Amino acid sequence: MKTIFKLIITAAVLALAGWTAKADEGMWLPSLISQRIGDMQEKGFKLNAEDIYSINQASLKDAVVLFGRGCTGELISPEGLLLTNHHCGYGQIQKHSSVEHDYLKDGFWAMSRAEELPNPGLTVSFLERMEDVTEKVLEGYDPQMSEAQRAELVKKNSKAIIDEATKEGKGLRATVEALYYGNQYFMFLYREYADVRLVGAPPSSIGKFGGDTDNWMWPRHTGDFSMFRIYADKDNNPAPYSKDNVPYKPKKFFRISTKGVHEGDFTFIYGFPGRTQEYIHSDGVRYIEETGDPHKINLRTLRLNIQKKYMGQSQKVRIQYSSKNATVANAWKKWQGEVKGIKKMKTVQTKQEFEKAFDRWAKGGEFDGVIAKIAQLYKDLEPYQFAADYYTETARTIELANFAAGILGSFKTDKESKAVTFDSGKASGMAESFYKDYYLPIDKECFVAVMTEFDSNVPAEFKPAYFTSMMKKYGSAQKWADALFGKSIFADRAKLEKLIEGCSTSKAAAKARKTVAADPATVFASEFAKWYAADVQPHATRINQELQLAYRDYMRGQMVYCRTQRVPKSFYPDANLTLRVAYGHIKGYSPSDAVYYKPSSTIKGIMQKDNPDIFDYNIPQRLRDIYAQKDYGRWTDETGEVPVCFIATNHTTGGNSGSPVINADGDLIGLNFDRVWEGTMSDIVFDPEICRNISLDVRYVLFTIEKLGKAEYLFDEMVFAE
Ligand code: ARG
Ligand code: GLU
């Protein structure tokens, strides 16, 4: 009874979520967009809620996909043509690249469907529908249950919901996700396609122009796009890669508008934001600001410097580490902006004041004591969180150890007969892709650097016994590395391959398994993993579960408090890689005194940054020629220049990369790819004055396809709005 009552209250509170939201902050659920559509229309949007999300008719949601498991993409033709970011397709472009065919450097354009390149492992998912399943998920819940029991129940009920929703097969995949810390649950049903081919990508000197120097920065001039095509079986259903597959026919695709953007114009982003924490307690923010981010930044600075040194010495190493380096650098730079933003916004202090007022209000009621409880739990959690952060940013980054653990995992022991089997084919494949992009001196030097930091910063009582004994045995991380990398069979490709080939009988496989298990690289991985699983994770999980419970109350409490006490605050569920709508408008900003940034950039800025001596700013000669001749084709703005990027007030985060940017008429004007550095704290606190998302103008995409890629044949399948 009590549960039902709570559910009803929750529903009432949730229905009012966002009642005060007027600013452009917010990532809204598409199925509930009717609650926001009035505000959207007031701000200029001309379509209605059913055009955005509908399960009865084709709607814009059917033209948006989750690309891989961390980006967004959109359909731009009736024949399955898909647009996403260059950095989202980067891994695929990199895998097809070698010194002979360097698609990263030179770009790639399929000149016919036959030339499109398959990408095993890459999938795209369309959202079929989403549904509030709170009651079903909590069926059988009893408030006496512990948080662990509740989690079990949620898991069990979710599985039943998922099984039911996906029973038809045909590429259906479902997840049940908690919103508002488990005050509400939604089921998301996807159809997942697995034959996705690379159609084209500009050279990195365009697609990654400005590199990590310009990353997270405005003004920006990066042509961050790549193109893929989705293939399906002849019934338009998902199918694994096959020559016989045909281009997928989407229910909906975007028309392209080349009308351009102006300050004040309405914009709307439809995509899959990954993770935000807008409602966390001040102590959670304080950990990020004072401890988590600074330590992680330091560890990555060390690794980046080592990578950079070797990448500068060899073209081969530069290609090998380009993707890895970009991944390490990206969060590293974001965290620096985040810390600055949190400090500038005085977020800890503002939250503390809010918490004090909340606490006073909560006295004697349902939410009494929740603030103190959360504070205590953070205190308990912090040392474990710190150890976990160190584990992730140190031991887990050693490439050789990760590879060794993977190979060990390819040995299977039969439960009954104890016979060992080994999939040599699979292991050879793993070895092939590992060594293609492996450079031992980088890995080894990083090992020394991060293990030295681990030694100085992780408190003695938290260090794994294995770590302490190795450091004692060798005397330094350097000597330990000499021994580990000197002795490991994984450091010697020929030796490892011999071992893989020799595993033809079960007896030989059993022997090889012993060798692999005793290898110093494997031992490193498994000892750290054991320590983490025994001494860190269980404690962190237990505390996090309690925290989750407290947050569930605090979340509901914040909603009730703000509504009844008329505290203006918008409520929307934190991002969790589910489909969301963010809307706002084109707008410049002022990051500091006397500085004002305009909202759009043009090809002129590319030429101003162009510098053949600086890798990040060395554009293709062809672009210089085009600029000199003003050979822009149809792709200019009213000043006669080619527009490149623009910024707006849409609330986005990682995962929104590649998201369509849509105008008031519902047409595609660009694709989202970044945020401004001064606004990266928006995952925790949104400042409408400073937080801006960065998008690529679709006209620069079209310009690049035609003038650099010479692939204008692709325009034939697109539909232009005017
Ligand atoms: N900052 C953007 C995002 O978070 C772009 C990343 C591209 N990677 C890079 N290292 N430049 O994903
Ligand atoms: N580049 C980010 C991504 O990969 C988007 C930028 C952001 O975090 O807002 O999703």
Descriptive report:
- The protein is an alpha+beta fold and 722 residues long.
- 45% of the residues lie in helices and 14% in strands.
- The strands form three sheets. Strands 1, 2, 3, 4, 5, 6, 7, 8, 9 and 10 form a ten-stranded antiparallel beta sheet that branches.
- A hairpin with a 5-residue loop joins strand 17 (660-662) and strand 18.
- The longest helix is centred in the last third of the chain and has 45 residues, at 520-564.
- The radius of gyration is 26 Å and the shape is globular.
- It binds arginine (ARG) and glutamic acid (GLU).
| Helix share bin | 40-55%
Named once each, the bound ligands are: arginine, glutamic acid
Structural class, please?
A: alpha+beta
How many DSSP-defined strands? 19
What's the pLDDT, averaged over the residues? 95
Distance between the termini: 58 Å
